[in-house]
Amino acid sequence: MSASLGLYRLQQVDRQVDRARSQLDTIRRTLENDSELQQALGELETAKADHHRDGNALNNAEAEVQAQRIKIEQADSSLYGGKVQNPKELQDLQKDIVSLKKYLITLEERELEAMVAAENAENSLRSAQTKLELIQARLGDEHKKLLADQSTFSIKLDQLAEERDAALATIESDLLQVYENLRQQKRGVAVSEISDNSCASCGATITIALQQNARSQKQLAYCPTCGRILYAN
Ligand SMILES: [Zn+2]
């Protein structure tokens, strides 16, 4: 067995690991939309609660204004109805009406504030609903498929880890160091196959003598152009 064969096999495993990891990364990023979904659901709950609360507050404010107007009407009719004759009582009634009307203004201001708040709550609720619907439409079935893929790739990675251990068992540690360093420098491809008398990675011509070296059981041979370990089938 040539020195480069073990590394070539290891690289085949490592490249599958790289691909599976990159796919898992993509899935994880996409699934982070899940937290976006959770957030949108939370926002909708809050908006519903606010809407409910502000709606009740508006109803109460309207009822208070209404009750105050009835009180004023009643006081007015007592004042002008003719039943009360006593000047002191009439004067008291007039005072009452002035303060009832004054308080009505306060109540009407509160009613207006409550109306504005209820309207804002209504708008917030509607936009929270729209936001949630958009996210749900976007995720949908894709979301389910991603969860399934995620578990498939995780299982695949476990299997690859075992394959990698098996491949490592045949490799000398100093060769492994060379391989790891080259993999970092050469974007994941440390070992290049010789095909049609050329380096499969960079296309450089590989002499017959170098091809013989690449089959050596003891030493590694390197592509003179790209510097990768050469593997001859
Ligand atoms: Zn090369």
Explain what this protein looks like in three dimensions.
77% of the residues lie in helices and 4% in strands. A hairpin with a 2-residue loop joins strand 1 and strand 2. It starts with a helix and ends with a strand. It is mainly alpha-helical. The chain binds zinc ion (ZN). Zinc ion (ZN) binds next to loops. The site of zinc ion (ZN) has 9 residues, from loops.
> If helices are DSSP runs of H or I spanning 4 or more residues, what is the number of helices?
5
Helix content: over 70%
What is the string of helix and strand elements?
A: HHHHEEHE
Number of domains: 2
- For the largest sheet, list the strands in their spatial order: 2-1-3
**Bulk shape:** rod-shaped
Radius of gyration, in angstroms, nearest whole number: 40 Å
Summed over residues and divided by their number, the pLDDT gives a mean of 92
Q: Please provide the count of β strands.
A: 3
Structural class: mainly alpha
Strand content: under 5%
Distance between the termini: 11 Å
Task: Report the uncertain regions.
Answer: none
* Biggest sheet descriptor: 3 strands, mixed
**What's the CATH architecture name of the largest domain?**
Orthogonal Bundle
Indicate the CATH class of the largest domain: Mainly Alpha
> Could you tell me which ligands this complex binds, including any ions or cofactors?
zinc ion
CATH topology title of the largest domain: Helix Hairpins
